[in-house]
Structures are given as structure tokens and as C-alpha cells.
Design a protein that fits this description.
Blueprint: H1 20-27, E1 31-36, E2 41-43, E3 59-63, E4 67-75, E5 89-96, E6 101-106, E7 119-127, E8 132-139
Antiparallel strand pairs: 1-2, 1-3, 4-5, 4-7, 5-6, 7-8
Length: about 140
Amino acid sequence: MGVTEIDLSRPMPVPTPTSQPFWDALREHRIMIQYSPSLGEYVFYPRNRAPRTLADDLEWRTISGEATLYSFTIAHVPVAPQFADAVPQILAIGQWTEGPRFSTELVDADVDRMSVGMALQPVFCDHPEHGITMLRYRPAGQRG
């Protein structure tokens, strides 16, 4: 039996019709998430109906992108071979000023200076070869 070649390229997100506006905005280095008038609040992840009310009233709105660190962990073991060069990796939950929480990877961060509640700023990571821009975060005030 022959040796099977392993694809070590990193997996990329595949936008859906529901999430496409989010990805289109990221490509322009903007962050758009949905707002529900029936709830009177922003919601995230992209969906077709508002949570709790199930109203069909979701609107796409641009947000500031400002966030605080809600929680984080340091991954020392890669989740797959494609991420072997990315450890240690700071996996985090952030909370946008507008309300929703989101998962992200922190970049340009000193692990010893990390603290829950610290301010975060968005980092747009363009992958033109895949036609996608990924949203990462770094501690506020740092430049990449």
C-alpha cells in the first residue's frame, strides 16, 4: 500500500448564505453582526431568527469591534497537525462592547500579562488565496 499524502494546510471557514454578510464585512476590515429589534440587542453567531423571540427581524449592523477579555486558555497541544506551528495558542472568549460574546484567538499577546477584563482590539488577518479574512484580537494599545 502506498503512502498517503496529508494536507497540512489550515482549514478555512466556509461562509453560508446566513453568515455571508459577516465575512464580506471582515474582508473590508469592518465587523458586522446582527441586531434584533424585538430583543433590543445584538446577537452573534449569524442566524435566521432572533433567539428567545424567534422573530424574523434580524438586521446587519456595523459595530466598533472594541471588546474585553471574558475568558482564555493557553493551548500547548495542537488541535490538529495543521496547527503544530501555532502552539502555544491563546484561545479566548471576548465580549464586544455591544454585548455578544465570541470566540477568537489572541495574537501579539504576552501570556504573563493576560487578565480577564482587559481591553482588546480587532486584528484582521487576510487570506487572499482563500478569499477570506479571519478576525483575531490583541490586547488594546499593541501594534502588530
